[in-house]
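[stage:ingest] chain + small molecule (0RA)
[stage:ingest] validated
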Amino acid sequence: MAKSYGAKDISVLEGLDPVRKRPGMYIGGTGKPGLHHLIWEIVDNSVDEAMNGHATTIEVILHKDGESITVTDNGRGIPVDKYKDGRSVLEVILTTLHSGGKFDPGNYETSGGLHGVGSSVVNALSSDFQVRIKRDGKIYSQDYQFGKPLNKVKASGSSNRTGTEIFFRPDNTIFEDIGFDAEWIEKRMDNAAYLHPGLKLVFKNEVAKKKHAFLHEGGIVELLERVQKESKQPPVHIDAISINAKNIHPEFPKIEVALQWTEDTKEEILPFTNGIPNPHGGTHEAGIRDGVLKAIRGYFDQHNNAPKSLAISSEDIREGLKVIISVFLVSPQFQGQNKEKLNNPFVKQAVSSIVRSELERYLNGHPNTGDAICQRIIQSAKARAASRSAAQKVSRKRSLNTRLNLPGKLADCSSSLPEESELFIVEGDSAGGNAKQGRDRRTQAILPLRGKVLNAERESFAKVSSNKELKDIIDALGCGIGDNFSTKSLRYHKVILLMDADSDGHHIATLMLTFFYRYMPDLIAKGHLYIAQPPLFRIDYGNDTFWVLDEKQRDATLKKLEGKRKKKINVQRFKGLGEMMARTLKETTLDPTKRRLLRVEIPEGDEEETDKVISDLMGKDPSLRFSFIMENAESLDEVDL
Ligand code: 0RA
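[stage:predict] done
[stage:export] tokens:
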């Protein structure tokens, strides 16, 4: 920076009123992050001074009251000479809003803010603000309240040192709570020490009477080492890989990356812009992912060392990868009030191409490291393939465990894969017995209903969920009820109501539908609920047998057969499923290759109508219930299986 600090350096001048009117615009908000932002603004200025080679130590003091801070650095000290309007440069800096300025490109090693710029915002939002400058053998000081100077800059005493010291107490009429969090301060200072290797940051906590110094000569490589150690998993290669580049582009003066594969399963990327953490990542993080994937794929291709049959996914490449990326930008753009996410679009491509070429070059120059990384990735790809089948086993085991709570009268199927399993809910014990005999034991489960099924429309949730018959259904399905319902734990992907084709059967089916509709609507929405269609008539014609569902089909079939009139025709009406032979039940109703099922659906757009029909009819005349189920059955989608 030029020796004279004049008007040209302070490009846009504005008073501090806008800051007090809309603090959120300048510090992101007036909650806890905004409050701490005040410290970062001041500290960042001192960090800039250090990055320019003029300061080596920054001290932050959290005072005893926990509500005021002093930040000191041993830099050159903010200039105190006269500005053209007669005030001191110091006062101009502390009372002027510097909006829209840019970094001096020659002066890029700068942290988050403009040089000295944020301090006016802190001043504006502080009920007390005191600055002390050591410069030119003297100590200069000035006090402010709410951004307004109480006096002119005073010179007092003498000092052979230089530096800037700023004390501030946030304005408690602006912030919700002005108590600082020592842990936040410590963490941020520790981070800054990694990002600015050699810079010593001291935190003096007068609340806890503790002092802690942060100094990390190893920079982001040392930070990476810490991340790796915290993962408690060994590294795949001993030396971290570092990638550094400068002057990538006029807007992009510097990038530093440290990366290392570890035996951990978690990928971790810690991204920073101008020394400030971006917890939500952004374009630098996207760039690093892209660059690493391309470099590794390139390396695999060149060295031909991946098993042909093995598919390597980006997850495999990223597994256990730990990355620190620190970019410095002339005009960083962020998303989110606290710079959570970097937004400059050009950064992604720039980072990706640097990382790609530098990483590939490194691996080619360090083949042992390259091979170790490839082995790690292949191991992850194999594990992923193996875990797919392991996951299936686990889910099988899990459903085996849930079998412990199954209702006693359930005849479960032996398969525990829900996709191939079916549950028949059958009315009555004798029908249940037939169904048990006629089923495919592997995939078909039978739950006979004995007692009365409650009308779910008229009873409370408590009563419904404690009704024996409904409770058995809930337990057998294993997927919970009401708000706790989840098809993830559904034990059968087909739930099939099997009722007699008479009015009692219709009544029970209606009660069941009402229950599912009110308490497990997702079971219907996701297409898991079906109605079986047992035949009502058997027609024998010589050695041929026809099963028909209703009178209409019976008449149509008889008409066809009467045309022939050669053999004896016998028509039999089933009284109920209980009287049907197990073999017959199997052939007509259970066997997936021969049966016909109706899938229960609520046609789109008819939700309200369905709701009304259910609430209108349930609880009134049983004949109305009967017509409801019949009508609905007609409008149900037919599923050919
Ligand atoms: C403007 C010009 C110079 C230094 C600074 C600002 C400065 C600001 C802050 C804020 C916190 N600590 C700081 N230290 C220095 C350069 C003055 C010169 O040329 O001597």
